[in-house]
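Here comes my example:
=====
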Amino acid sequence: MSGTGRTEGGRGRLGNALSGLAVAVGCVLFLGGFAWGAVQYKPYTVPTDSMTPSIDAGDRVLAQRISGGEVRRGDVVIFTDSVWGNLPMVKRVVGIGGDKVACCGKDGRLTLNGEPLDEPYLASGEPASTTPFTSEVPEGHLFLLGDERRTSVDSRGHIEDAAKGTVPVGNVDARVDAVAWPWGGTLARPDTFAALPGGVSKPGPITPVLAAVVAGVVLIFGGAAYGPVAKWVGRRRSGTGAR
């Protein structure tokens, strides 16, 4: 009988130690994930429908802090430009320095350096542009369009400006990686730009950040639940033995 008690006591001490370790590791993962995310990302609420269907008006997105030199064609970026009203805006990069962007080709598609572009991020039936335009992008600048081409106020509306509708790369603050609320998942990098010089950007660390936070929550609650569950099981066994 005394041997049974020692065995159960040893198991109890081991269980308590493991549950405490689980809570400690969970706290590290949870807090570390949040800290990592805070350094890498900033939240932003999209005010208009200019990026539908990729991002709807009112969506809360997570945008990775990057420098302008990290921007690639196809990226959805947040930028601020005094010519555009000096307010944060979200648009898609379709041209970088040295590119010639025009619309529309014989088949109604946007052309980049004379080649028609497939734009899978546009809604079905959405025109590449409602107005014709041509812009040669200066070095160190970006040509930006909304995915909702009928209503988006973007580079097309600034073609007559000195910068030909473009924005300096240094004006980019962040690149949108995911729609956080309502949860829409990560934004895919368009394959249409992958074969061009520079390719497309790599996704930020949003997946491991979320994995660390979720794993931390599971370990914290799992470890914290061990004590009450163990006591309940013990009472059940005691009650069964008494009968």
Summary: The two ends are 18 Å apart (CA to CA). The first strand starts at residue 41 and ends at 45.
